[in-house]
Amino acid sequence: MPHKRRSQSWTELKQAGNERFKAGQYGEAVTIYTQSIELLEKSGKKNKEDLGILYSNRAASYLKDGNCNECIKDCTKSLSLVPFGFKALLRRASAYEALERYRLAYVDYKTVLQIDWNIPAAHDGVNRMTKALTDSDGPTWREKLPPIPTVPMSVKESLAQAANSAPTSPQNGLNDNKQKVPVPETVKKAKALKEEGNALVKNGEYKKATEKYTQSLSQDPTEVTTYTNRALCYLALKMFKDAVIDCDEAIRMDSGNIKALYRRAQAYKELNNKNSCLEDLNSLFKVEPNNMAAQKLLQEVQNMK
């Protein structure tokens, strides 16, 4: 009598799906992940974390295969099981972006950055979405955004602990370990790069300075003054839209930042966006009513036709 073949467990199926994914066999990976999901759901164990990872892995396979709608469904399911899973958020953002649903992509990329500022893919995504939305919706694009969820501190802390005790992994890999959070060494390196940028600004070397500031932000994206300094360079280089983007980020972190409000107002003036310029100047005067540079800019803007 032939031996009956032993059924594979959901963990064995998951591993087989991972192997198919790594081999670029995304359609087969989807099929195997589906079997693993069904088996785990039928087992009655209700292990939300394991199920969440399986849905996120299947989403990655759908994304690689170009099936963005199914990717979004699986990421949403994964996030309902494990809220603020950063890989599911990144994958859903990528799918939204591919479908030109830029507002939803922006929200997901921004949510990832709340979890961990040190994820380059999320910073790149935010920058792409900001440019796309500015081009499509104009300077008031932020008013049309859906709400950005607030990541609870408890989630950030637990993820940071997991990250610091686990190896790093690439964005689209299937290992759900998280990248390490910024450490004092990177902050120190960021400060040194910023100071190099400041020295270049004093010599009028604005293009080289932007490169230093960009390198600094890749080490520590939480330093507000680096954004406002780079915005100054963009203004000097007549890259006004880029100046607006950097000021947006600075104002998001510090709503009353005088330099950010002033420099964004300058950029809006050059972009002939009188209303947004006046809004920024009015916000600035609430913080610093006697700012002479802002008063001079206000007179110039009021004289614009």
Main traits of this protein?
mainly alpha, Serine Threonine Protein Phosphatase 5, Tetratricopeptide repeat, 15 helices, elongated, 305 residues, 3 domains
Description of the molecule:
The chain is an all-alpha fold and 305 residues long. It has three domains: 9-82, Serine Threonine Protein Phosphatase 5, Tetratricopeptide repeat; 83-166, no CATH class; 184-302, Tetratricopeptide repeat domain (Serine Threonine Protein Phosphatase 5, Tetratricopeptide repeat), CATH 1.25.40. Helices cover 71% and strands 0% of the residues. It contains 15 helices and no strands. The chain has helices at 10-22, 26-43, 48-64, 68-81, 86-98, 102-115, 120-137, 153-164, 184-202, 206-219, 224-236, 240-253, 258-270, 274-287, 292-302. Helix 2 (26-43) packs antiparallel against helix 3 (48-64) and helix 5 runs parallel beside helix 7 (120-137). The longest helix has 19 residues, at 184-202. The radius of gyration is 23 Å and the shape is elongated. The chain starts with 9 loop residues before the first helix and ends with a helix. The model is unreliable at 1-5, 164-173 and 175-182 (pLDDT under 50).
